[in-house]
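Supplementary Methods, section 5.1.

A reviewer requested that the exact input to the structure prediction be made available. We therefore reproduce it here, unchanged from the version used in the analyses.
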Amino acid sequence: MKKVNRVAVIGTGAVGTSYCYAMINQGVAEELVLIDINEPKAEGEAMDLNHGLPFAPTPTRVWKGSYEDCGAADLVVITAGSPQKPGETRLDLVAKNAKIFKGMVKSVMDSGFSGIFLVASNPVDILTYVTWKESGLPKEHVIGSGTVLDSARLRNSLSAHFSIDPRNVHAAIIGEHGDTELPVWSHTTIGYDRIENYLESGRIDQKTLDETFVNTRDAAYHIIERKGATFYGIGMSLTRITRAILNNENSVLTVSAFLEGQYGNENVYVGVPAVVNRQGIREVVEIELNEKEKEQFNHSVKVLKETMAPVL
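The structure derived from this sequence is encoded token-by-token as follows.
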């Protein structure tokens, strides 16, 4: 038999199952293994997803598995952990989720796993660092979802303002996936036109841009207040990252990657543009930031390091 792409998903809550649903509908992998401490829940989700396979674009084998199934997996995606509650920041989740992660990562590595980790649980930058340290894998093989979703939210908002397809809006948010993240306005383009030209022509003003960013940064809080959790957007973001990995795309995505001097920082996982392919992170893309952006990015890294110090 030819080699098939197996993806193991740890956590069958709303995020994990939204990811699996998107994966099946986009035909990204041949095998999906669902793993959860609540085994009946994982089995029920696998059954439900299987019933939709006659309508999927490609065949996918889906089943309730165990950590032993991770040994043959190309990718292990972790969506498990304590969820963010109303009024709670992502960084408030550090201590309890770090402890949970250490146990999960050990169980995965005990299976003989040698593939790539993709982490989605919050606070994602810190938990990606924990996964890297506990797994012993090369830094390139451990990736966090980072600010891929945040960047997509910003692109969507700018798309609505200018009535331009969001796929033709190029904008990035970098830094912590959380309250200290920042927009890179200096590299934002609408179609092929720089955002500075839109400001100069009066098609948008700085106040509107600032409000757009704040709404993007706080989007999760607004969604959690209304429906209790966010899961569709992150599920599709994880699917996009997975496609870049399994298809060896060399795509540039704002994932949580390990810095070794890039952007003047080191020994931290944080959201930055990076080239993603079958080997994980091929390289961090170091774009030139203006002075304000440099200051904001350094502040974001400082907050991350201070927050993760007690749990490492």
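The chain has two domains: 6-144, 148-311. These observations are discussed further in the main text.
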